[in-house]
Each structure stands twice: as structure tokens, then as C-alpha cells.
Amino acid sequence: MSAPALPPGASEGGWPMARAMVGVGLVCGLLIVFVYEATRPRIERARAEALRQAVFEVLPGANSSRSFEREQDGHYVPARDGASSAERVHAGFDAENRLVGLALEAAGMGYQDVIRLLYGYAVESETIIGVHVLESRETPGLGDRVESDAGFQANFARLDVSLTADGRVILHPIEVVKPGEKRHPWQIDGLTGATITSKAIGSILRESTLARLPAIRVRLADFVEEVAP
Amino acid sequence: MNTEDFWKGLWRENPIFVQVLGMCPALAVSNTARNALAMGLATLFVLVASNAAVALLRNFVPKQVRIATYILVIATFVTIVDYTIQAISLELHRALGAFISLIVVNCLILGRAEAFASRNSIGRSVLDGAGMGLGFTLALLSLGAVREILGSGSLFGVALFHADFQPWVIMLLPSGGFFTLAAWLMLFGRWRAPDA
């Protein structure tokens, strides 16, 4: 392929090259910042709405929800409006205002990029009852099937995360096993063709449940007392 | 102004059916008409904008760094499209997934920048980008429409058949993309050169 016609001198020396690259890079950078700033409010609003809907998805049986934030002393209080954070706990209540469960956000590295997900924790049965992927860039047709594959999703119908008797740690941390080898309620059947992504989902859930459930469990009253009539 | 710059992308040099470029998004996100249309329009925008920018810069950028500059320009417009689609609909953004970012490596876009925009005026480059982008969109839409009609029994989400219709699930799977593309290529080949 022949090179495009260029004015004489345009290809000589380093200065024109540096000027072109830096100039174009600068303009492109400014353009991206401008678009990012312009679209951010709308994107944040849409994300908040998507999160609200996801709470009901991972907590079947809930028909109202309230968000809580953690205070310095470990207590949970109703979240004030403003920037949402991944530390928030979303409590779901049924028609009689009973606490169905808590929806927690978790994130970790997948195959391509960070995967953000929301999982529903049933307070009474101490199980995970739903997982919803909020954000992922996994390979289309392979890794991203963790969101659509019915068999893989079935892992999260009743995934055991019960605590030890003293309530300090999880009795059996979640583990991912080879497809079809799930024997215990705390195991996740891996997904063929999405090995790394399914393991990532398992470890995101394991790390998050280990880190957060013991602390949340002792504060369950915070969520119930706050129920408005 | 030469209108052939515009029309050639739609028919004589259609990116999908004639040049067979940009197959990755063409096969992957043509499972529904809506996804195909969104992908096509996103590519159309990037193509027109990058063609215009490349034509504008064609006497300013030394040829040794031209490819790097084109990629920078294309990546910028793709990022803009990415944010814009997120602002319009998160659901659509999720459906298109990684393929929005992958518009950067759609060889159709770099191909038009190198083969056309880098040696022609802005006006002609914009026409070329618009024609190619529209040709790409129409081709993607013809793939997406066939796959959605057969695979889900609907078009743009509107059910077309009686409830008894048994959808051909294979049309939504990757293999369905290949079947549909092959059928369209065959049809197009016959149409363009009936004696071949």
C-alpha cells in the first residue's frame, strides 16, 4: 500500500512527529474529559435505578427496600441521600414489613476487568438466594454466560454461608468446584467455557461474605428496628 | 461533490456483503434487530467522526506516526460513544457489552481512515464514512432482523407469530450468525453477478 501524499518536509525529524502525537493526544484527552463530565450525572442516575431493581431480583419475595450505611461504631443507620457507595447494605422487606434479606454489593477481578455484583443474603436461612452481575466486561459468549446460564444461576438458589456457633467466621467458606461436582450446599458448580469467570464469581462472594457477614449478623436488629409502619 | 463517495458504501463496496470487513461485531451482536441497529449506528458515528478528523489532520501528521494517531482518534470517538450509550440506556450498554470498546479494532474504521480519509478532503471523507457506516448498519440490520424473526419470533421486540411458533434457538447462537451471513452473502452474490 503506498503512503498517502504528504507535503515535503512533513516526515522529517522528530519535531513534527512529537507535535502531531502530543497535539492529537491533548485534544482527544480534553474531548474525553468533557464527554465524561457531561454524561456522568445521567449515568449515575441510571446506575442507581438499576441497583434498586437488582435488589428485588436478588431478594425474591421482597417488595420494598431501604438502604443502610455503616457508622464508625459498626451500627447501621438509614442511608442519607448522596453518593452511593459499595459499602451500603440494602434491606428487602416483604408485604408485612418483615425483613426478607439483605442485598450486598461486591467486586473483584474477573478475566477481563473488575466484575461488580450484588448478592442477596437470606437472614433466616443464612444462605445466598440470588446473584446479579451489575457490571462486567467478560468475553461475550464465554465468560458472560455466568449471567445467563440457568444451570450456573441455580447455584445461587440456596448457597450456604452460615456462620460458626460463635458467629465469628463462616463455617464453610464458598468454594468453586468442577462442573457437576457440587456435593455440599456451600459449593458452586463451575461453568464449562467460563472457568476463570465462574471462579472469580466464587471468590468475590467468598471474600465478601467472609469480610462482611459476621459484622452484619450481630447488627441485624439495626435493619429491623428501622422499619417504618 | 461526488455522490458516488456516499453510494459506493451502500452497495458496490458494502463493508459486510462485499468487503467482508468487521465480521466480529457483525456476527456477535446481530442476534436481535435492536442490538444490530445500535451497533451499526455506533459504528456509523465513529466512522464519520474519525474520517473527518483524519482528513482534517492529513497534512499535519507525519506518515510514520499516522497509524498511531488514527488509533488515538478512533479510540477517542469510541469512548465518547461508550459514555453516550451508557447515558441513554444501561441495558443496551450491557447487551452490547465489550463490543462497544471493540469498535476501536473494527478494521473497517482503520481501513477507511488509511485508504480514503488520509488522502481526500473532509467533505469526501465524511460522505465516504457516512456511506460505509450506513452500509454497515443496513447489513447488520438485515442479519439481526433475520436472526430475531427466526430465533425469537419477533422484530424489535414485537412478537410476529402466533403463540404456537417454535423459535429456532440456533439462530440466536453464534452458529446462527454464520448461517445467516452465508445466506445473505449467497443472495448478494447472485444479485450482483447473476452469471458468476
Topology:
The complex is a heterodimer of chains A (229) and B (196).
Chain A: H1 14-58, E1 64-70, E2 76-78, E3 89-93, E4 99-109, E5 114-122, E6 127-135, H2 145-148, H3 150-153, E7 159-160, E8 175-177, E9 187-189, H4 195-217, H5 220-225
Parallel strand pairs in A: 8-9
Antiparallel strand pairs in A: 1-2, 1-3, 3-4, 4-5, 5-6, 6-7
Chain B: H1 4-10, H2 23-28, H3 33-57, H4 66-88, H5 90-96, H6 107-115, H7 122-152, E1 154-155, E2 158-159, H8 174-192
Helix pairs in contact in B: 1-7, 3-4, 3-6, 3-7, 4-5, 4-6, 7-8
What do you see in this structure?
The complex is a heterodimer of chains A (229) and B (196). Chain A is an alpha+beta fold. Chain A has one domain. Chain A contains five helices and nine strands. In chain A, the strands form two sheets. Chain A has a seven-stranded antiparallel beta sheet. In chain A, a hairpin with a 4-residue loop joins strand 5 and strand 6. In chain A, 31% of the residues are buried. Helices cover 65% and strands 2% of the residues of chain B. Chain B is built from eight helices and two strands, in the order H-H-H-H-H-H-H-E-E-H. By secondary structure, chain B is an all-alpha fold. The chains are: A alpha+beta (229), B mainly alpha (196). At the A-B interface, helix 1 of A face helix 4 of B.
Our count of domains of chain A comes out at 1
Count of runs of 4 or more consecutive helical residues of chain B? 8
N- to C-terminal separation of chain A?
75 Å
The secondary-structure class of chain B comes to mainly alpha
Structural class of chain A: alpha+beta
Q: Largest sheet of chain A, if any?
A: 7 strands, antiparallel
Order of helices and strands of chain A: HEEEEEEHHEEEHH
Numbering strands along the chain, what is their spatial order in the largest sheet of chain B? Answer: 1-2
Q: Percent of residues of chain A in helical segments?
A: 25-40%
How many domains is the backbone of chain B divided into?
Answer: 1
- Based on CA atoms alone, the radius of gyration of chain A comes out at 23 Å
The overall strand count of chain B is 2
Looking at how many chains there are and whether they match, the oligomeric state comes to heterodimer
Strand content of chain B: under 5%
Query: What average pLDDT do the residues of chain A reach?
Result: 85
Largest interface: A-B, 33 and 35 residues
Mean pLDDT of chain B: 88
**Major sheet size, sense and barrel closure of chain B:** 2 strands, antiparallel
Overall shape of chain B: globular
Strand arrangement within the widest β-sheet of chain A reads 2-1-3-4-5-6-7
